[in-house]
């Protein structure tokens, strides 16, 4: 007998029929002798409906009250799923984030989990009950309802699995696993049966939106075995594992990418200590998240060029902030490009194998794709290209590194 | 400065516009220097939507989970109303039933309030914040979410007012006060500026659905001054007060009535001790609520006739149960009538004034309305008549007792 934590996202519980299907699946696991804790999201569309309602009243909703409002979404789902389980004679009991005592800090709308009282539900599990927990939400020390931000249900599931010392945390989603790249772009993309935590982190943060990056970090930190699988099809999915477990994985796990990026460059910045922080400080203060950062050597020796990427939505504001900074720094000019995309090659094998980067650049060059920016880490190489080359670039790299399903 | 508890029902918070209107009203009270606690229901239609969702999954929803589901309705409203208040610069903070620590017993779907931790919100009130509380819901000793049943928000408001020792509990609804009878039936019905608790209890239980009877009982028990007023119009509404306060009230407060009643009679029941409980025991076990009970003397001396009324929805089941009992008791026959209505004259003045009942019967006789059943208490006289005579009977009594607005 093992203890399994399963998480079902909004699409998987998006209708009465789908909730019934989830109940059937959960009950089957229980009948196989497992203890099951189910973590659920709000029914798809519900969170957006609530946000629209809030915005109709307050254009920038008070964060504390927004959490009170949004938390109802998952509360509806836990009640309905518990009913669906009881209807098929599978005893179940629901828990809100507050009832499960999912303690978070007080950062409303983006709270972080601090502690979970696992003991609370052990009696239910021992009595053979399925425990159904509201994902995405918690409670702070003074009893205020908090939410973890979009996609937080994955994090809830992993944190609960860690607190209960579960044997596996299964994330059910609308894809059947992690692929070498997005199959919508490269139909020959191959499903990985295993991937390391580090690779998964890079894949997730780079736009393969299968799992929330915070959930993967959490799983890595607490060593929770994590599996991604489909709530609509049968299959083993993809197991996210620790590097030492990996015996014979390919050097490259996959190719991640991000659309909707924008690039900003300050030309002719005085090349002095502290310049980078003087540029990025005001950007961070404006709550704009920065992705890649590259500092180039400029033509003359007294100045340098400073480039970074942001989400395309943040581009206009970032450009405005940067104009101001450029004036203060006596920089020459601010350039912006809203039509870029990022392609990344990810794999732990990269560490020990030289030549991966050059092979990547060659494959892109063969397709006449101009590289606008490069950034590397231990297990990934990212390039920025014109947005229109995104699909071509992904497919070229997929083939060059032998990731095709037929390979 | 006084402390006011205000309660707004589902219609009053049924849309974004109406929530904004409630916020404006609440903020005005606060600006006049009052401390304000607002208790709200779910937006109109929301509770029914949730119940339908539940029934689509489980025809008889698990009571514990139904409460988890339904409690989201008020939770949405408290968040939205708090946002609406903050939007007009009125500081506010929302509380769910659990957060406010509204402790109830564990009778899901019809829980009763045991205790409220008033201290919890005193700091907010002292800081000048409006406190917005979810009505209709609470939490039991082990942290399970409970609901008080339909209309429970009134009870929540009164209980909170009692716990906080509020100066007044104001129930905002879609009518502007308590009338001598339903103005839809008698256009000359007059609004009462005051009514006693006892009269209000009879009026409420007899079908003048302005206030939940449990809320009135609670208010009477804890001596909470209660006022019913309109959320859409200005006005003083009706104050529900204690008898000793009443100086010169008319003898008759008003005329209540109930449609949707049904009558059942067991003819020829052996006239022995314990027969009444042998008849009503199985009815109660079938969860059927009985309203009026009358036992008539039968034609012969060995047997008697036993009659009671139930809600029309319960009639088929009650009739079935009664057939069984009648067989066991060797009763002669079971009669049923689904087309009856009840009309009641209510007033504390009745106690000291003989002749009220006969005046009532005479007024009905004048209109050729046949009385099928009579039942009296200290402050009311109720008669059962054919349903088709309901309106005629109400109007006849309204005039006979001088209740018309022009009178």
TrEMBL record, chains A, B:
Keyword terms, alphabetized: Amino-acid biosynthesis, ATP-binding, Kinase, Lysine biosynthesis, Nucleotide-binding, Transferase
Catalysed reaction equations from the record: L-aspartate + ATP = 4-phospho-L-aspartate + ADP
Biochemical pathway: Amino-acid biosynthesis; L-lysine biosynthesis via DAP pathway; (S)-tetrahydrodipicolinate from L-aspartate: step 1/4; Amino-acid biosynthesis; L-methionine biosynthesis via de novo pathway; L-homoserine from L-aspartate: step 1/3; Amino-acid biosynthesis; L-threonine biosynthesis; L-threonine from L-aspartate: step 1/5
Highest taxon of the lineage: Bacteria
Family affiliation: Belongs to the aspartokinase family.
Residues noted as binding substrate in the record, renumbered to the chain: 47, 74
Keyword set includes Cell membrane: no
GO biological process: homoserine biosynthetic process; lysine biosynthetic process via diaminopimelate; threonine biosynthetic process
Residues annotated as domain ACT: 264-339, 345-407
EC number of the protein: 2.7.2.4
InterPro entries noted in UniProt: AceGlu_kinase-like_sf, ACT-like_dom_sf, ACT_Aspartokinase, ACT_dom, AKii-LysC-BS, Asp/Glu/Uridylate_kinase, Asp_kin_monofn, Asp_kinase
Record's GO cellular component terms: cytosol
Keyword flag Transferase: yes
Residues at which ATP binds: 7-10, 173-174, 179, 184, 209-210
Full protein name: Aspartokinase
Organism: Thioflavicoccus mobilis 8321
Entry-linked Pfam families: AA_kinase, ACT, ACT_9
One annotated GO molecular function: ATP binding
